[in-house]
Design a protein that fits this description.
This protein has 294 residues and is of the alpha/beta class. It is 45% helix and 15% strand. It has one domain: Ribokinase (UDP-N-acetylmuramoyl-L-alanine:D-glutamate ligase).
């Protein structure tokens, strides 16, 4: 798709995905969402940390969306005028990063563009907690995606976050995610052994993924890229988040089934698998039991 053919506004996003429920199989729903991303090629503007910038950009592209990493104050807001979804990391916790987030969020809100917040390291330091509290008060994020510890910290629950890693057990994570969704109005994605996706009333457990995902720095950031790519193409952030988590988890499984020598080659296989995924790839998979309402 050429620059002139790219969707110019949020109203161009396709709502072709089936709702979560018994009307259509999970495989068919996932296939239609993958087709929607390919068909619309949404522009995803990502203000992400320097550790995972390249991985986020590549995975966004491999799902069929278009990545742009404009994050400098001033120019970032100009780019947001053409974006179809925004992905934010609150790391690094610099004045320039927070300024760029606020500038672009104002543009995105005025255009009705979905914003995905990845609150990296929430609960780790008072500074991060204060900035995140301000951002959540100021802006209507469509999706908040974090690990179990980060989501628990944002919800005011006990959490152990060391650096950016979640430590401990979170047996009530589904209710915690629902609580945060009620408080913020956002869809909440809590990533862990199984991903939980919740709005104020519903929560779903997505059983997909592989333990090797935990051996690669930045796989949580790549989940955020998957969610933003889908939310840039369809209008339902709950459905989009459920199927983005499913697609990403399946890619992790398929990558683990390939030949790899360790974490570095596994990451390459993960990116290759996402690049190969399309509706024909997933159409014959039995996926209904991978999504459980809880």
């Amino acid at each position: 798709m050429s620059e002139g053919d790219r969707p110019a506004d949020a109203t161009d996003r396709t709502n072709s995905a089936a709702p979560i429920g018994p009307e259509e199989t999970a495989a068919a729903s996932l296939g239609s969402i993958l087709d929607a991303v390919e068909a619309t090629q949404p522009l995803i503007q990502s203000l992400v940390n320097r550790v995972t910038t390249n991985d986020v950009a590549n995975l966004t592209l491999h799902w069929g969306a278009l990545p742009v990493m404009a994050d400098a104050p001033g120019e970032a807001a100009e780019m947001a005028e053409t974006a179809n979804a925004m992905l934010y990391h609150t790391s690094p916790m610099s004045d320039a990063r927070i300024e760029a987030i606020r500038e672009t969020a104002a543009v995105a809100e005025s255009r009705g563009v979905p914003m995905v917040l990845d609150p990296i390291g929430a609960g780790a330091t008072p500074t991060r907690n204060d900035v995140l509290s301000d951002l959540l008060t100021e802006w209507p994020f469509a999706v908040i995606k974090g690990n179990y510890g980060e989501i628990s910290a944002l919800a005011g629950e006990d959490a152990v976050v060391r650096g950016v890693e979640s430590v401990g057990e979170y047996e009530q994570i589904a209710e915690t995610a629902r609580s945060l969704a009620r408080e913020t109005g956002a869809v909440v994605v809590a990533s862990g052994t199984a991903d939980v996706v919740a709005d104020a009333d519903r929560a779903y457990r997505i059983t997909a993924g592989h333990e090797m995902l935990g051996e690669v720095v930045g796989t949580g950031c790549m989940l955020g890229a998957s969610i933003a790519s889908v939310c840039g193409a369809i209008d339902d952030p709950l459905t989009g988040s459920v199927y983005a988590a499913l697609a990403y988890g399946l890619a992790g499984e398929h990558a683990a089934a390939s030949e790899f020598g360790g974490p570095a080659s596994y990451k390459t296989a993960l990116l290759d698998t996402a690049w190969e995924f399309e509706s024909a790839t997933v159409g014959d998979l039995a996926l209904d039991d991978r999504i459980e309402r809880i």
